[in-house]
Amino acid sequence: MSSRLKVAGWVALGAVAGALTTMQLQANARSTLSPLPLDEMQQLAAVFGLVKSDYVEAVDEKKLINDAIAGMVSGLDPHSQFFDKKTFKEFREGTTGKFVGVGIEIGMEDGLVKIVSPIEGSPAFRAGLKSGDMISKIDDAAVRGLTIDQAVKKMRGEPATKVSLTIYRKAENRSFPVTITREEIKVQSVRAKVVEPGYAWIRVSQFQDRTVDDFAKKLEDIYKQEPNLKGLVLDLRNDPGGLLDGAIAISAAFLPKGVEVVSTNGQIAESKASYKADPDDYRRRGGDDPIKRLPAALKNVPLVVLVNEGSASASEIVAGALQDHHRATVMGAQTFGKGSVQTVRQLGPESALKITTARYYTPSGRSIQAKGIVPDVLLDETAEGNVFAALRTREADLEKHLNNGPEAEESEARQKAREEARQKLEAEYAKRAEPPKPLPEFGSTEDFPLVQALNKLKGQPVIASKSAVERKAEAKTSE
User: Which ranges are annotated Basic and acidic residues under compositional bias (predicted)?
Assistant: First the structure.
């Protein structure tokens, strides 16, 4: 399997496993506990004692307890997780959109790290790195053979520390070293542009702390360029989700005030809720309402929402709400299908528990768990058809996902189907002189789904997929 095919098919897995965090971080774990099963607790204590006394070498007690907690939680579902000091820090970085690094958005191609885009104003941007540059070494360590996560960890670090990168610039056919000083980076989760007179594109890549503010500012800039906007494409492809208030706010930008955006339901009282297109349901405590600044015309501008298999969680909420209220045409591929809610409860200064507390439902009452949002118009990735779609992981492929019946045979069938699809793709591309090209960058002139979305807005013919079919939901167990 070529490295290019492997990466394009699987690199999104880490992203789509991200949580929809609906409730604010709890200061402490819930104090009211059910009676503990004493016999089982004694057994747990006995195992702890035996490992500590009899294991071949000394074990760290704190690590042993943390591993026990992590194992307990990981057995629940794919999205519940225990955060130790390191993983809790990484989680908070993900939701705030801040981290310490060099400031590049990356992918992988032919085993090397490819710079998709330097973040404007970042150390990498100031060092002159460009889209399409390839990173072959990080601090004299070869990149080939590393996963994308391993490469990211090598480039991140402490503020004011240096990292050396070896860059290959294909356009100039040369390699050169660059030494960059790490600093705090603020991720831009929103990109936008006027693609042609009267029509604009706005992309949300993740729902983070600053997403709503950035979204409002980008739309204000669009309306300054195009005060009589004829159509807008909201691009949620490969958006793994994030914070619920961001999803509600962005939905509210297009919907009438007070209509339902999403509802949640779970075992505890606070998980039974209905969230509406109202500032009270998305505005941070004491904070501003950026959505209020947007032009009134936005409520009625013709709208297309682009989604794909990597659109998950909060992005599915937005797509589902706009679809149910007939506010937008949803186009693309069936989404990931993560219809569960996670709450983060802090256990101590440096540890926390992310636990699934509810399922969420679109305004019409649909649960999309293990199914996803089915677009109104199904599109292929390229004009030639789907390249990597068959290989992408979805919620229904994750072990212990919610809302499935006896699944041993189902899981084996899914794995078998995916392996057959992979082998078919390998065989097709083996006949070609060159390996498959990476998919065009979202928002570029070669972006086939975006072209079809613009055609829809302009009333021109749309090339719908001839091969994509709806995936049915997983069988439900009794609840």
Answer: 411-423
